[in-house]
Specification:
The structure is a single chain. This protein is of the alpha+beta class. The protein has 20 helices and 19 strands. It has a 4-stranded mixed sheet, with helices on both faces. Strands 8, 9, 10 and 11 form a 4-stranded antiparallel sheet that branches. β15 and β16 form a beta hairpin.
Length: 638
């Protein structure tokens, strides 16, 4: 559908503003469509005819006009009568013009209120019997109707009608609308008021024929002999012989904008004020974005660029009409939308060539598009991207983290379900298995593995894992290849130590599978060494029994308690493991220190915490000497 700017003329300022009010509510109307003449020869045309509810709105600032009673008796529910004072030839008034007359007393100061001194005409609609109606919104069909509180609305919906905030909004638009004026033409008594509005192309061009439309087919049948009537093209029946428009498909007597369409009398078209047009344009931008997989913000930016304007505030009515036409075309055929540069995924080589200053705006654009695709608030998407980079603010991220976030955002845009999996976690992860890999990338600069703290050199592959849905703790950052795939099936000593520590930190228990139990038994002596802390010998012996049971049964559900884990860590720290493997020794020293503090707390009182892991986390954060584990994430999924 194409749009154009048209000028509508009115007799009074109140009528012009009432038209804005009705258009804002999308209430179809005809302005002064019928001219009547009283018995005394006085000609008049009531202000508005609402065909859906068959209501006449008669606006007047000087009380009821002299022709009011005759008009009510002629077009009202009683129909034509024979009392004195009726309209001339009242019986010739067709039934299509019969309805409910409503008198609307207008304020003499239109700057105070466009149609009266109350909100949205809520107390200004008076029936011939003196009943005051108001504008309400039907709770069933959603239409705005003239009715009274507690009564059945004219549409007949059983849900009833009630007040609506959009009535205040429509009244505000009508009050603020700029109405143009022109001097009175020679021979007329009053000035002319006009509005510039947006309507579909042709909506005002198809004015009714003066004597009614007559089809070309009927004209030819009158001229040609009857034996050739059946050879006439049926399409001639929809073409008017007096005007260049098709005939209305409903009434067959008035012109329409297109073949098969209805005329303005049968289906009036609401016009768009500047404010309403901007709202409709935003809605169309959202529809086009949903169809193309782009956020509405990008569609609005493309519309602004198409008009060569920076923002919507600079749009004139003509710019809005052109933008509405373009937006409807994009919504109907998303393939015609010009694709922004950020819509084409970049390769890893292209990302490597971009610096942080170019990556940040690109990431913002991807986040906006992702918000449009997933219907997630853009702030939520930005928080998830910052969480992925391990920063609180975008400015803290370095180039390597930004490249990873851009690559992940591109992946999520191509598969929005992957973002939901990242947010909600994955289902069906067995206790002795690892979740699926979320993403991998070849590093441009070296980083540290978030779990084992080994260095991942430049040119090597790092990746991330999804987390199980049952896990509510922090997420792991980039992982080395071993921690990404093999730490459960080919455990190293440091993997076993971290499994003990983080399991106890998170839940109070460490869960090991059969291979991890077997690997731990190979590192532990069969009996408790003499240097073990006093009181831990029974716990160590019980730990050996649990580990042997896990190996024999192949079960992944064997658990080590806090005392078991502390005893195992003490024995490993006292043995040769600390001397032969430097990394394991450093981690072990930190684990032994924290286990000792937790067992005999001298820093924090655990009674002040609702959950035990919260007390352990605070203990870890406030340890006297920062250790390797104090600087690492707590309660990570291991």
């Amino acid at each position: 559908m194409a749009y154009e700017v048209v000028t509508r003329h009115f007799r009074t300022d109140a009528e012009a503003r009432w038209s804005v009010f009705l258009d804002a509510l999308e209430v179809p109307y005809l302005y002064a469509p019928r001219r009547f003449v009283t018995a005394a020869g006085e000609a008049f045309a009531p202000s508005f005819w609402l065909p859906e509810d068959r209501i006449w709105l008669v606006l007047s600032s000087d009380g009821r006009p002299g022709w009011w009673e005759a008009f009510v008796q002629t077009v009202g529910a009683a129909g034509p009568g024979k009392e004195e004072g009726l309209l001339r030839n009242a019986t010739a008034v067709r039934e299509e013009w019969h309805g409910s007359p409503l008198f609307v007393p207008t304020c003499k100061r239109p700057e105070a209120a466009y149609h009266g001194c109350s909100r949205a005409g809520s107390e200004d609609l008076v029936t011939p019997g003196g009943e005051v109606l108001t504008w309400l919104r039907c709770q069933g069909c959603g239409r705005f109707v003239c009715s009274a509180y507690g009564q059945e609305p004219p549409c007949g919906c059983p849900e009833g009608a009630d007040d609506d905030p959009r009535l205040d909004e429509a009244a505000h638009w009508a009050t603020q609308q700029a109405v143009g004026t022109a001097d009175a033409a020679p021979g007329t008594a009053s000035a002319s008021f006009h509005l510039n509005m947006i309507t579909p192309v042709g909506a005002r061009a198809a004015e009714p024929c003066e004597d009614g439309c007559r089809s070309l087919g009927n004209a030819l049948r009158d001229e040609l002999p009857a034996w050739v009537h059946h050879d006439l093209d049926p399409r001639l029946n929809t073409t008017c012989v007096q005007c260049p428009h098709p005939i209305c498909d409903a009434c067959g007597s008035r012109p329409a904008t297109d073949a098969g369409e209805r005329c303005l009398h049968c289906a009036p078209v609401p016009a768009l004020s500047k404010t309403r047009a901007r709202q409709v344009l935003n809605d169309l931008a959202g529809q086009a974005g949903s169809a193309a997989g782009l956020p509405a913000r990008e569609i609005n930016t493309l519309l602004n660029r198409a008009r060569r304007l920076r923002n919507r505030a600079q749009f004139t009515l003509y710019d809005l009409a052109e933008a509405l036409t373009l937006a409807e075309a994009w919504a109907a055929d998303p393939a015609t939308i010009p694709r922004p540069a950020s819509a084409t995924p970049l390769t890893e080589e292209e990302l490597d060539d971009l610096e942080a200053d170019a990556l940040r705006p690109l990431l913002n654009s991807l986040a906006a598009r992702l918000s449009g695709k997933t219907r997630m608030p853009i702030a939520h998407v930005q928080v998830k991207l910052n969480e992925l980079m391990g920063v609180h603010q975008r400015g803290e991220a370095d180039g390597e983290a930004l490249r990873e976030a851009v690559g992940q955002a591109q992946l999520w845009n191509s598969d929005p379900m992957a973002l939901r999996m990242y947010v909600e976690g994955v289902e069906g992860v067995e206790p002795d298995d690892l979740p699926p890999v979320m993403s991998t990338r070849v590093l441009r600069t070296r980083v540290t593995c978030s779990l084992c703290t080994d260095t991942i050199a430049a040119g090597e592959t790092a990746g991330r894992l999804h987390i199980p849905q049952s896990w509510k703790g922090p997420r792991l950052g980039p992982l080395c290849g071993h921690c990404l795939r093999d730490r459960r099936t080919k455990p190293r000593p440091v993997d076993l130590v971290l499994r003990l520590f983080h399991g106890v930190l998170a839940t109070g228990w460490a869960q090991l599978n059969a291979r991890e139990a077997e690997g731990l038994l190979q590192l532990l002596p069969r009996e408790a060494p003499p240097g073990l802390v006093s009181g831990l010998e029974p716990a160590y012996c019980d730990a050996l029994v649990v580990l042997h049971r896990a190996v024999d049964s192949g079960s992944a559900k064997e658990l080590l308690s806090f005392l078991h884990a502390r005893a195992v860590a003490e024995v490993l720290h006292a043995g040769a493991l600390s001397d032969t493997v430097a990394r394991s020794g450093e981690v072990l020293a930190a684990v032994v220190q924290h286990f000792a503090e937790w067992d005999d707390p001298a820093l924090l009182n655990p009674g002040g915490y609702r959950f035990q892991y919260e007390w352990r986390e605070d203990m870890l954060r406030q340890t006297p000497g920062p250790t390797l584990l104090s600087r690492r994430p707590r309660r990570v999924f291991v």
